[in-house]
Every structure is written in C-alpha cells, then in structure tokens.
Amino acid sequence: MRKPIIAGNWKMNKTLAEAQSFAEAVKGNVPSNDVVDAVIGSPALFLAPLASNLEGTDVKLAAQNCYFENAGAFTGENSPAAIADLGVQYVIIGHSERREYFHETDEDINKKAKAIFANGMTPIFCCGESLETYEAGQTAEWIEGQITNGLVDLTAEQVSSMVIAYEPIWAIGTGKSADANIADEICGVVRSTVEKLYGSDVASKVRIQYGGSVKPENIAEYMAKENVDGALVGGASLEAESFLALLEAVK
Ligand code: 13P
C-alpha cells in the first residue's frame, strides 16, 4: 500500500511572518503521518525557521530546489547538505518553472536527484508536457523521456523511495486541471516507465503525484485513481485552511 503524499509548493510566495503564521495554523491540525505525508515546499529562506516551528509535528518540509554540489564557489545556490542539516526531508526538482525559466536540463535534474539521496533526503521529481506536446498527442513519449533521462544511474532502492510528480504545464496555475482519467493515464505512463527501467516491484512502490490546479474541491477525484498517490499543489496550498482541507480530503 502506498501512503498518500500531499505536498504544497509555495513557489516564490510569502514573507517569513506569513510562513510562520501558516505553520502555527496547521501544525496541530494535520492528520497523522501514519495516514498521509503532509509536506510544505517553502522558499529556501524560510526552511530554517520553519524547521524549528514544525519540529516534532506531522508536517514535513521540502525545499523547492537545490544545487548538486554540497559546497564550493557556486554563488547564490543552496547546498543539499546544508538543507538536509536543517531536518528537511524532501526537495522538489525539475519543476517545469525551473526547466523553463532557469534552463534546467534532465542531466542537471539527475545530478540533483543523486545529491539529494546522498544527503539522506527524498526527491520529488517533476515531469510534465507543454500544451503543444499534449495537443500533438506526444505526452507519453515526452514523459517517458523525462523519466528515463532523469533517473539515470539511480538504484532500484532509491527509485522505490522517491516521489514523481506529473504536472502538465497547461494545467499549472491556469485553473484548468487535467481530467482525472487523463491524470491517471499519464501517472500510469510514469509507473510503466519505471517498470521498464526497474521492474514491477519498484514500480509498485514509487509514489506518483498529480499536480496542476488541484484544490480541495477536486482532490478526491484524483486520489480515487489507481496510479495517483498524492498531489503537488501550488495556489491551493498557500492558505492554511485550504492546505488542511486538501489533507482532510485524502485521509
Ligand atoms: P497550481 O496548483 O497553482 O496549479 O500549481 C501546480 C504546481 O506547479 C505545483 O508544483
């Protein structure tokens, strides 16, 4: 049985005071992590204070990115070793916004995945196609390519424990969520790609999220699907009430 994982991706939003008041509002109110993993993907600036605000609670933290080296002359980057040292458990990598605006390649993302595992954390590895690719009927090949290139040289044990988020770019922040059957079908493509690469045992363990205009009102439709184990949520994760409602809907 795969445990559901609901992760908020705050993107570049909130001040420290706003982040901390969110943490105060959710911390005693999330379902037990025996039932669901509740994760907040905060800007790196707030990870240290949030880690202390949320210590001992069922809320886990994710960074939204990291570099693939642990230390050195890489001005402006964040070290995965330093992130792990804060008690952060997850790092989102390969988000389409990073691929598009910051020119991250599959190879960069693969290096980041390895660095995240080397530091004892878990990647939330994002994949997803553009509207053009979707309309051309090339989604499956596109996703298969991103997964195959992104997982190069990861071990079966690593892939079993990671999280892969399928986020069609055309559904992100547009209010136009993918139909739950499409989400299930493409999350199924992710799973069958993992199966081709690593076998059925690994494919049955890897957790796959859908992301793109997920809200408290529609999350149950996705979670009811066989291949969807959770959601990666932008806009609807920004308010404590809405984040808690997403978690309530899956527990
Ligand atoms: P929205 O939920 O705002 O569409 O964002 C999805 C997303 O990009 C999460 O990573």
Automatic annotation (TrEMBL):
Its EC number is 5.3.1.1. It comes from Vagococcus zengguangii. One of its GO terms (molecular function) is triose-phosphate isomerase activity. The active site is at residues 95, 167. Keywords: Cytoplasm, Gluconeogenesis, Glycolysis, Isomerase. Belongs to the triosephosphate isomerase family. Substrate binds at residues 9-11, 173, 213, 234-235. It catalyses: D-glyceraldehyde 3-phosphate = dihydroxyacetone phosphate. The gene is tpiA. One of its GO terms (cellular component) is cytosol. This is Triosephosphate isomerase. It is found in: Cytoplasm. Pathway: Carbohydrate biosynthesis; gluconeogenesis; Carbohydrate degradation; glycolysis; D-glyceraldehyde 3-phosphate from glycerone phosphate: step 1/1. CDD domains: TIM. It is an enzyme of class 5 (isomerase). Involved in the gluconeogenesis. Catalyzes stereospecifically the conversion of dihydroxyacetone phosphate (DHAP) to D-glyceraldehyde-3-phosphate (G3P). InterPro entries: Aldolase_TIM, TIM_sf, TrioseP_Isoase_bac/euk, Triosephosphate_isomerase, Triosephosphate_isomerase_AS. Gene3D superfamilies: Aldolase class I.
